[in-house]
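Input record (one chain):
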Amino acid sequence: MRVLIPGLNRHNVAGELLAGVTLVAIAIPLNIGYAQIAGLPASAGLYALVVPALVWALLASSRQLVVSSDAASASLVASSLGGLAVAGSQSYAVMALAQAVICGVVFLLMAVFRLGFLATFLSKPILIGFVGGLSLDILVSQVAKALGVHVDSGAEFTAKVVALATGLADANPWSMLIAVSAAAILLIGQRLARAVPWALVVMVAATSAVALTHADAAGVQVLGAVPAGPPDLTWPVLDAAQWLVLVPSALALAMVASAEGLLVSRSYGEKHQYATRPNRDLFAFGVANIAAGASGSFALGASTSRTAAMDRAGSRTQLPSLVLAGGTLLLLLFGTDLLAEIPAPAIGAIVGVAILPLLGFRELRRLWRLSRFEFWIAVVCFVVTLTVGSIAGIVVAFVLALINLARRAATPTIDVLADDGNPAHALVEGTTAGQTTAAGTIIIRMAAPLFFANGAVFTQAVKSAITDAGGPDDVHRLVVDMEAVTDVDVTGADEFDGLRTWLAAARIELEFSRVRSNARARLARFGVVRAGDTVFSTNRAAASASLASSEGTRPC
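The corresponding structure, as predicted from the sequence alone:
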């Protein structure tokens, strides 16, 4: 047991089994709803809880992350396939299977080439905006379903809002009553007793009420028959052109799932002090998604809400996911008749309440307080995802990530160091000032590698510091503190060469301090630090002693 399920022992097995029962109660109603969001039958959501959950539990390094269908992945599936086939058709279902397989292959490639670091490329503001936009689109559709108003799931967001608003007059009153009651029970219940599986309570209560009152005869839609039996092993058959069309959406699914999944996995690992291996988790994601495509389901993502629920339940292993797989299989074998009378308004309320936290309004308020720039990044990503579509949203997310990265790289911290005429003291203590030392020395420190985005900025900062200090008449020596310059590229080296020429023309000596030993060879090869240049010791104490003396230098 310890080999197959890390963290499991005879002391916690009972608690882990109980947490697994809780996970079954939470996941089954949610996955039925997510399957409908994706435009697929309820069975597709249930199949995601069997083979893929089993595979994930046995392969993942994370002891707590729950992987299954979720709101973001379901919405991405619906938005990306809606223009390629009719939701609910056989061709649509086959495309969903193929999309999951491609998504799995992308994960496997990321694992093989150790690209887990790419998941961190989507910053938290970008994820907040992207997932929030998807979630609001889902929420409108679920509100319409809960009220019995017909809305085209493949329509644009504004069209859905208009259809919902104009259809309210014709909403089924019994559907409205069930939806409002279900939402109220969920919201109030979660505040009073978070450990209770309120989604299951609502589903059972609403189904019982419909069965007793025959509300389906009054126009309340019910789930209908769910095929009995375990998932069939299958394989999507499409032509090459159709496979290629699915690649962009599969890439988007993989990036969002990996970014969110690895972030959540790492955070819980740090919280409970166990190691996680990102590339192994990417491998597990890949195999689980391929298993989903081969067993009648659709692309999977990381379920933050269910992971949090398991953490609150005290679970610290993947045993609950194994219990979930077994419990769902038993339901498919013997209990599908119980699902036929589940009212659609109850499912809509369950999914709607589940995705409310994903809208990100609380996180947006926090971003507004902390960083207006990152707030607007999240807002732009939110609006584009909501109004243009999920694929456009992920493209904009990457562009915004690049802009944010370039903005930060192009504006590194550049300190002008001096103190009381003692440059050595300034070097060691890091005192910032805009004056030269008594000896006519200025010390410049850039806290970043020297490359194309900041080379010109560094050069201009040096020239401005010398000019502000009185120019060449008062400044006779420039010392560049190289402690944070860990790398250089051709553009950065060329900019530095131009600075060297300018300094020579102004008769200002150029010297270096604390050049990193692991970067020295590359800096020399690019001509930043040359043979014959004065280079002070890399040791702070030695640098202090050397720089304090006008003769205390060591040539490179």
